[in-house]
Structures are given as C-alpha cells and as structure tokens.
Amino acid sequence: FRVTTFGESHGPAIGCVIDGCPPGIAIAAEDFAGDLARRATGRTRHTSARHESDTVEILSGVYEGSTTGTPVALLIRNTDARSKDYDRIARQFRPGHADYTYWQKYGVRDPRGGGRSSARETTMRVAAAVVAKRWLRERHGVVVRGHLAQIGEIVPSAHDWSVVEDNAFFWPDAAQVPELETYMDALRKSGDSVGARVTVVADGVPPGWGEPVYGKLDADIAAAMMSINAVKGVEIGDGFASVAQRGTAHRDEMSAGGFLSNHAGGILGGISTGQRILASVAFKPTSSLRLPGRGLDIDGEAVEVVTTGRHDPCVGIRATPICEAMLALVLMDQALRHRAQCGDVGEVAPRIPAGAAQGES
Ligand code: EPS
C-alpha cells in the first residue's frame, strides 16, 4: 500500500496515487469532505486565511462506489492560489524555510507559494488516508485519532477525548480553549509563529503488525511523521522521557487480565503488542513571517526578508488530521504486509488483552 502525491501549493491542482489498494473498499467523493475540512485553512481565524473548497475528484481505481484494485487517483483543483509576492520571493531565501535547500539541490527557483514544501501538500495525504482509515476500521476494528498536546508552552490540564472535535485546536481540555484563543490572537497580532505537539493513537491494532529489523512498525511511523512538512521530532510511547526512567518503571508488566502499563507505545522490537499505538510529533514554528529576518538573496547578498501574504501562525493547529493520516497509511501497509507473509498465522501464544492502561497522552 503506497501513496505518492503530486502538485504544488500554487499550481493548478494537487493529487495523489494510491498503489496496492485492495479491491472492494466502498468509497465516494463525499467521503473525503470530513477529514479534509478538519485539516483545511480558512475555517477559523487561527489558521491561514486561504480558502480552498478541497473538493475531491476520483480519477481512477473506483467503479460503482468501490475500489477495483487498480491505482486510486485523487485530484483537488486549487482555486484560491494567489500571491503578490512572486517577484520578491523569487530572489530571496526566507530564514528557516526550505526554499534555500530546494534551490541548493535543484538550482530552480519556483516562487509560486511554498510549492511542494507548503502545508498544502498534506491535503492529499489526508485524502488518501480516508481510504486507509475506513479499511482499518471495517476490516480490523482499528480506530486512529489524535489531539493537540502542546502549543508553545501551553499543555492540556485534562485529557478528554470527547471534546477534541468541538474546538478549533483539537484540544482535549475544553476549559482551556479561551486561554488558547487569547494566546493565538496575541501571537497573530505580533506577527510571530509558534510550534506545537500532536499526539496520535491507534486503538485495536492486533499483536504482530510490523517487521523485526527492516520495516519496523515504529521506524515506519517515525519516517512517515518526519515526512510531514515542519516536523522536527517524533516519539513512540514514552519516547525521550525513557532516558530518565529505570527498567523497572519502563517495562510494561503483564497479567492474564492485560498489560499493566504502556510505556512502549504499543510496539516492542518493531512489532505491535496489541496495545494502543502511541506517537507524539513535534512541529516547528512556521518560518514565513512578516517580522523582518536576516536572509540572503540568490546572489548571496544579505537582505532583510519580510514575508507577506496568508500564513499559519501555528501550523501544528492543523496537524492532528495529518498525523492521523500518516499513522493510518503506515498501519494499513503493515497490515497488508503481515497478511502477505503470515496469513492467518498468529495467536500462537496466549494473547494478552490490551488492558486498561493504554498509555494516555
Ligand atoms: C502556506 C501558505 C498559505 C497556506 C498554505 C500553506 O498559502 P498561500 O501561500 O497561498 O497563502 O494557506 O496552506 C494551505 C493552502 C493548505 O491547504 O494547507 C505555506 O506557506 O506553507
């Protein structure tokens, strides 16, 4: 199960191709709307003001409402790609932006928006994962979901999954939402940006998905998350907190009634344990800022860079559905690989229930 995307933020369209998609998955163009709206800009004042309808056209791989087994191709036409900045951006490198490394690698300067380095590219990952989420849920009872776990220095005081979809921040503590709104309003007015942390989990994953050395489940998840624009860190389970732990504290003890903790994040030796899969992803602050910064132009001359236009003060606010998407894509791929190698083998040892201790974020 392999997804590739194409298109630029300010090109005519963006799209994706899903190869290796099993036949018989019911899918219609309307099914994409929910998750695409969760990720989109222009829905609240806390994200970029660009407004795209993100209407999906299914070009291939679906007949009479079901996948056929041939490549699934999806397309979204860009309708609000405008910028007054092309001439200036064509000559300047923004500090902290990929336009410098793209130039160093390719020697081509495409100044039309962020191009492939724009968050716009992540739209098609979310679209592709609508298919994966449906297959995981219907075939295996696996549910993937996420929430924001930090904006700047603010962390949730409570973790209530039932409120996450009710606020613009995917925040698990309803009482803190007014504080976040004030914080984001002040940040936006200041012209600066801030980083964020997203927690993403998968419940219902059976033991056995993942490979022991090449293609470890945790390695695939880390690579998938790091492939998202602006991601600078990924943790599985306790992640970097493991550094300060004792083995007696970190090990997840077992009983016939279930695992007694989930410090491992549901993965041991690259293979799922049957517990909740738990990952945490760090997003850097957006680099396109209207506050002046020191940069270079394409001739190597020092310039003061000021980026105008529509940009996210915290791109992490929109990242929860993107992290869910990448986790779902990896899990579907690993589920199919497991089935290809092991078929129905498994269940060879007593299976330990996931237990109540899921490793809540
Ligand atoms: C982005 C800049 C803005 C965002 C865009 C990401 O676009 P523009 O350059 O057209 O003003 O709106 O994000 C999206 C359009 C999206 O769908 O995620 C950037 O610089 O990365």
UniProtKB/TrEMBL annotation:
Keyword Lyase assigned: yes
Q: What is the cofactor note?
A: Reduced FMN (FMNH(2)).
Q: Which residues form the signal peptide?
A: none
| Residues binding FMN | 116-118, 229-230, 269, 284-288, 310
Tell me the residue numbers annotated for binding NADP(+).
39, 45
Would the keyword Methyltransferase be found if you checked this record's keyword annotation?
Answer: no
Q: What is its EC number?
A: 4.2.3.5
The reactions it catalyses are: 5-O-(1-carboxyvinyl)-3-phosphoshikimate = chorismate + phosphate
Family label: Belongs to the chorismate synthase family.
Quaternary structure and partners = Homotetramer.
Q: What functional role does this protein have?
A: This reaction introduces a second double bond into the aromatic ring system.
Q: What GO MF terms are annotated? A: chorismate synthase activity
The pathway is: Metabolic intermediate biosynthesis; chorismate biosynthesis; chorismate from D-erythrose 4-phosphate and phosphoenolpyruvate: step 7/7
Specify the enzyme's EC class, one word: lyase
Cofactor(s) required, per the database record? FMNH2
Keywords noted in UniProt: Amino-acid biosynthesis, Aromatic amino acid biosynthesis, FAD, Flavoprotein, FMN, Lyase, NADP
The protein here is known as: Chorismate synthase
